[in-house]
Amino acid sequence: MTDRMKVNGVLLLLLCLGSALSAVIATPQTCPANLEAKCNDASSDDWEGEFFPGIPKIKYEGPASKNPLSYKWYNAEEEILGKKMKDWFRFSVAFWHTFRGTGADPFGAPTKSWPWEDGTNSVAMAKRRMRAHFEFMNKLGVELWCFHDRDIAPDGKTIAEANANLDEVVAVAKKLQEGSKIKPLWGTSQLFMHSRYMHGAATSSEVGVYAYAAAQVKKAMEVTHYLGGENYVFWGGREGYQTLLNTDMEKELDHLARFLQAAVNYKKKIGFNGTLLIEPKPQEPTKHQYDWDAATAFAFLQKYGLVGEFKLNIECNHATLSGHSCHHELETARINGLLGNIDANTGDPQIGWDTDQFLTDIAEATLVMLSVVRNGGLAPGGFNFDAKLRRESTDVEDLFIAHISGMDTLARGLRNVAKLIEDGSLDELVRKRYSSFDSEIGALIEAGKADFETLEKKAMEWGEPSVASGKQELAEMIFQSAL
Ligand code: XUL
Ligand code: CO
């Protein structure tokens, strides 16, 4: 490395640090612009009129439509493979991305200036935001939503203050839900943002943090239950380590299991019948996250006797971060009876982190739907759009367009799966591939009754086996023809 390169490197580092700091320090100017808003009045959650004027209720117009604010493939009431599309999907809006995403990144300040935001993190703002969220869901025609405790209400200086803030906002959500079918697909608690959680929550080295996290989950479960939520998610954002040199991994995993068992006990105590879900992710923010992937989470559940109490929430971008395809993670969950929910998003093949983009790849969506159809659907789980607008997408209508596009893509995936099933040749290819096991000895093997002596005798009798083609290209051809 030349001296000049070194200087350039240092300058770049300073520049990066500078922009990261200014992003943290700058107060976002979110007060609007072009609507007659009751802005800068943090004491009031009043908002006269619509939050999304000019955006109609989104309708199905069919594939020929050129209207970006319409569904082209997702037709909620249409029956496909014996179920209404809306029941296959059970789409959900993720409150944190859609209503708390600001477009800020480590190098830059927020880019969104939603008209309803007043730049504060007050309870009044939280209530107004909740009303915007309900108008958004109603216009989109989505009946489920997901939230973290701290997305929907401001934190407090004490647990009691944070709980009181949450109660105020939850009361508004409850009221808005009244008379509608809207309810949470799942709730969760944010156990990764606050500095107290820097070593983890249930796996923190500090017992005070463990207890604090338990108090937070207890409350978040109560409000999820109160709002009629159907599931509760544990994403172990900082349940992992940065170095094994300072970490007692065995102790941390034991603590995590005790924590989850306490959550199971509390769920039963308060009569919450929702499914508990673990959301695997291999890393980010920690170097190593304990719920690395579906198989790792399954092994953990088995070791601690928690199978039967938990299912998995598979997120596609997390799958690719762990070096798997989303299809692989879905199938791993499915064949073990653990597929409970999908965080529908995707990463960017050129970027190695969790970009949380809306899925718009039809082939990928078809693979996802193959697993979902084989699973018989996801209910009481669903598809949560854990996905955000790009930093550069700053129009209010982009929030709608992104969701419509994600829903249409998955709807195309479902329609393609119906074609594949009707055609039958892919299933037949797979069936044929294993047909040698349809024999008497194959049945013995599958029943666990073929010992090595029997197999050796058979192998000697048969001699060198003939091995058929795997037909991969044919399988790919059949798959592609359905897209
Ligand atoms: C983070 C992530 C979370 C969880 C909920 O990568 O996916 O938003 O879904 O905590
Ligand atoms: Co997620």
Automatic annotation (TrEMBL):
EC number annotated for this UniProt entry: 5.3.1.5
Domain of life according to the entry: Eukaryota
UniProt GO MF annotations: metal ion binding; xylose isomerase activity
Reactions listed under catalytic activity: alpha-D-xylose = alpha-D-xylulofuranose
Signal peptide: 1-26
Enzyme class, UniProt record, top EC level: isomerase
InterPro entries according to UniProt: Xyl_isomerase-like_sf, Xylose_isom_bac, Xylose_isomerase
Keywords on record: Carbohydrate metabolism, Isomerase, Metal-binding, Signal, Xylose metabolism
Gene Ontology biological process terms, A to Z: D-xylose metabolic process
NCBIfam families (UniProt xref): PRK05474.1 (NF003998), xylose_isom_A (TIGR02630)
Protein family (similarity comment): Belongs to the xylose isomerase family.
Name of the protein this chain belongs to: Xylose isomerase
Species: Elaeis guineensis var. tenera (Oil palm)
Gene assigned in the entry: LOC105057722
